[in-house]
Design brief:
Layout lengths: L8 E5 H14 L4 E2 L1 E2 L1 H5 L3 H12 L3 E4 L2 H10 L8 E4 L8 H6 L3 E4 L2 H11 L4 E4 L14 H5 L5 E5 L11 H14 L6 E3 L3 H4 L9 E2 L23 E13 L4 E2 L5 E2 L4 E6 L16 E4 L2 E4 L9 E4 L12 E5 L5 H8 L3 H6 L6 E5 L15
Helix pairs in contact: 1-3
Length: 374
């Protein structure tokens, strides 16, 4: 059994992270594979994952969202990769310019105003330029590129971001790629990067010099059509059964009595709720793997507890058995689909009070056995 037997826990397979990094690197063989470790490595622990990528696979380029994250990552990588390039997606602000210098961070400049601020303070230091090619979220518009180029900033990387990489055949991908190639020619000395996880696992034309895998490293497919066989599951979220109860036809479950049973049922209450990161949106629609079956959530997810309808489980269930909310037995893509959320939300929403256990260099194969680890 993983973690504390009485509490919900998440196991993080560091070997699987490395396997996924290698899978991305193989798919984009002509490009450098970086590591996107923003939001605490998508909720799974940058302090454990970033050094593993650096030490075991030589990853030497990382991306975070904020300068504060970058400064913390620099400390984390002090021994394993002291000279790693750390890029900050959201760029510099007046109050963080000193932090960029102290932690040797590289900004991703997203506008003329950011480029002007960087040019005035640290023009000779390397920076990345983010060009907006159609996502209209972050990045310099095409109309500002000429003025940015005139600032003579030391751009070592020019990048953009695909809006529809979750659908490889979406026509917008090709349109963005064509525009990116056209504009990137203005910076011939900079490396080019267009793709995060989705583009990195697409055709060679999207790879350029550097790819920026995020969600793929953490075991979830970036595509809309379900799990990708090239990727291994990384996280396993489980929680113990704390109560079993049989209810009769017509009875209800949970706050608001939102689930009424049309036949007798076996309910398993598990110690996991929205306080641990299980989305409340999963109420009456999510599921978990227990007793050899995918068991639907019955009623509303509450802060600390969730009720599963285990009526169709083929194996006996006992107090203390662990329900798997996602992991090897219940793919995170399927868990997200059942709950009506994204895999990104499931991972980044994992709560601080979960027991976290990091696995590496050990055999931990699991069977579909009703939640018990073999």
């Amino acid at each position: 059994m993983s973690g504390s037997p009485s509490r919900p826990s998440v196991e993080i397979d560091l070997d699987a992270v490395l396997a996924n990094y290698r899978a991305v690197r193989a798919a984009a063989s002509g490009a450098e594979a970086s590591g996107v470790v923003k939001c605490n490595a998508y909720g799974l622990g940058a302090a454990e994952i970033a050094p593993k990528l650096a030490e075991d696979d030589g990853c030497c380029t990382f991306f975070v969202a904020y300068a504060q994250e970058g400064a913390e990552l620099r400390k984390i990588l002090k021994r394993s990769a002291p000279s790693a390039a750390i890029y900050v997606f959201n760029g510099p602000h007046r109050e963080t310019l000193a932090l960029f210098e102290e932690a040797r961070l590289r900004p991703v400049l997203n506008s003329l105003s950011q480029a002007q601020a960087w040019s005035a303070q640290r023009r000779s230091e390397p920076a990345a330029l983010h060009i907006d090619t159609g996502m209209n979220r972050l990045g310099a518009p095409i109309s500002e590129i000429g003025a940015i180029k005139a600032l003579s900033v030391n751009f070592d990387l020019v990048m953009s971001h695909l809006a529809c990489a979750s659908e490889p055949d979406h026509p917008m991908n090709a349109r963005q790629r064509a525009l990116f190639e056209e504009v990137a020619r203005a910076f011939p000395n900079a490396r080019r990067s267009l793709s995060a996880s989705g583009g990195a696992l697409m055709a060679d034309a999207y790879h350029y010099d550097l790819v920026r895998p995020g969600i793929a490293l953490y075991g979830a497919s970036p595509f809309d059509d379900g799990p990708d066989p090239r990727l291994r599951p990384v996280a396993r979220l489980t929680a113990p059964v704390v109560q079993l109860r049989r209810v009769a036809t017509g009875e209800t479950a949970g706050y608001g009595a939102t689930r009424r049973f049309e036949k007798d049922a076996l309910l398993a209450t598990v110690a996991l709720g929205y306080g641990d990161g299980l989305p409340r949106n999963a109420s009456n629609r999510g599921a978990a793997y227990l007793g050899g079956a995918v068991c639907p959530i019955a009623g509303r997810v509450s802060m600390d507890l969730t009720i599963l309808d285990a009526s169709n489980a083929p194996r006996p269930i006992e107090i203390g058995d662990r329900a798997e909310f996602f992991g090897p037995a219940f793919a995170i893509e399927d868990a997200a689909r059942h709950a009506g959320v994204s895999v990104y939300e499931l991972l980044t929403g994992l709560g601080a009070r979960l027991d976290r256990r990091y696995l590496s260099g050990v055999s931990h194969e699991r069977r579909r056995d009703g939640g018990k680890v073999q």
